[in-house]
Specification:
This is Agmatinase. It is built from 11 helices and 8 strands. Helix 5 runs parallel beside helix 6 and helix 9 crosses helix 10. The mean pLDDT is about 95.
C-alpha cells in the first residue's frame, strides 16, 4: 500500500454482526482482496514437531474465530491499527504434516514471498517449530535480529529422539545458523522443571537472558519491559510468543502447560511497553483449541496478536510520515 491509499479495514460490525461471515483475523480483508499488505496475518497449521499434546495445527483458525470480537481502536496504545496501515489476512501456509524438513522449507519460502512484498508478518501457529523458518526469512531481510521469546520453556534443546527440528529446538538452531543477534536475546515467562541444570548453562552460552514468570510477578510489567527495551536497543526485533507463557488458568488450551505462569494482563502490558522497539515481525504459537475452555486461550492469543499488529502498524505509519 502506498502512503496515499486508505487502508481497507474490518467488516463494519454495526452492519454485519461479529458472529456472521467468514472468520478472517479481526474480520479484516483477505490479502487477495487488497493486493498487498503492510502487515500480513498468516496461519501455519503445523504441529508435527510437538513433544506432548498435539492440536496446535488448529490454533490459527481458533485465534481467527476469537478475533471476531476485536475492535478497530486500541485504547491501550491510542491507535487504530487497521486505519494506520493495511493489515490483511493472508490465509494459511499449507505444509506437509508428514515431513518436518519439507514443512520448514515450505514455511521459509512462503515467508520469503510475503516479506518480499514489503509486508511484516504476524504469524499464527502452529507449534513452535515454525519460528525457525520464519526467523531465517526475516534474517535474510534484516540480518541477525533481536529476539524476545515468551514461553514457559527454553526451546533451546539440541534434539528430541535425534530430531533437530522440533518445537523445543528452534532457537538453538537459529543461534547456530547465525540469524539471531546474540547480544539481544531474552526468554520471558520461563518456569517449571528442566532435565537438569545443564539446560540453563547451555542456554546462557547461546546468549539468552531469562526473565522468569516469578520475575514478572515480583518486579511488574513496566520494569520488565524497561529491562527488555534496554537489551534490545534499536535492533530489528522479532517477538515469538508461545501461549504457554501464560498460566494454565489463562491459557489451558496448549500442548505443554506449566503451572505458575504469567497472567494475560501481564503479557499484554509488557508488549505495550515495547511499542518503541523496531518490531519487524512476530508470531503467536502453540494454541491447541481441543484443550481450551470457552475460548479462553484463543481470546488471549487474539488480543496478543492484536497488540503486536498495533505496534507494527504504528511504526509503519510513523515511518511514512517522516
Amino acid at each position: 500500500m502506498s502512503g496515499n491509499e486508505t487502508p481497507r479495514g474490518p467488516v463494519d460490525s454495526s452492519r454485519v454482526p461479529r458472529y456472521a461471515g467468514p472468520a478472517t483475523f479481526a474480520r479484516l480483508p483477505r490479502l487477495d482482496e487488497v493486493g498487498r499488505a503492510d502487515v500480513a496475518v498468516v496461519g501455519v497449521p503445523f504441529d508435527s514437531g510437538v513433544s506432548y499434546r498435539p492440536g496446535a495445527r488448529f490454533g490459527g483458525n481458533a485465534i481467527r474465530e476469537a478475533s471476531r470480537l476485536l475492535r478497530p481502536y486500541n485504547p491501550a496504545q491510542d491507535a487504530s491499527p487497521f486505519a494506520l496501515a493495511q493489515v490483511a489476512d493472508g490465509g494459511d501456509i499449507a505444509v506437509n504434516p508428514f515431513n518436518i524438513h519439507e514443512a520448514v522449507e515450505t514455511i521459509e519460502a512462503a515467508a520469503d514471498d510475503l516479506l518480499g512484498t514489503g509486508a511484516r508478518l504476524m504469524t499464527l501457529g502452529g507449534d513452535h517449530t515454525i519460528a525457525l523458518p520464519l526467523l531465517r526469512s526475516v534474517a535474510k531481510k534484516h540480518g541477525p535480529v533481536a529476539l524476545l521469546h515468551f514461553d514457559a520453556h527454553l526451546d533451546t534443546w539440541d534434539t528430541y529422539f535425534g530430531a533437530e527440528y522440533t518445537h523445543g529446538t528452534p532457537f538453538r538452531r537459529a543461534v547456530e545458523e547465525g540469524i539471531l543477534d546474540t547480544e539481544a536475546l531474552s526468554h520471558v515467562g520461563t518456569r517449571g522443571p528442566l532435565y537438569g541444570k545443564q539446560d540453563l548453562t547451555d542456554d546462557e552460552k547461546l546468549g539468552f537472558g531469562i526473565v522468569t514468570s516469578a520475575d514478572v510477578y515480583r518486579r511488574g510489567a513496566d520494569e520488565v519491559a524497561d529491562q527488555l527495551r534496554q537489551r534490545i536497543g534499536d535492533r530489528p526485533l522479532y517477538i515469538s510468543i508461545d501461549i504457554d507463557c501464560l498460566d494454565p488458568a489463562h491459557a489451558p488450551g496448549t500442548g505443554t502447560p506449566e503451572a505458575g505462569g504469567m497472567t494475560s494482563r501481564e503479557l499484554l502490558e509488557i508488549l505495550r511497553g515495547l511499542a518503541s522497539c523496531n518490531l519487524v515481525s512476530a508470531d503467536v504459537v502453540e494454541v491447541a483449541p481441543a484443550y481450551d475452555h470457552a475460548e479462553i486461550t484463543s481470546v488471549a492469543a487474539s488480543h496478543t496478536a492484536y497488540e503486536l499488529t498495533t505496534i507494527m502498524s504504528r511504526q509503519i505509519a510513523e515511518a511514512r510520515a517522516k
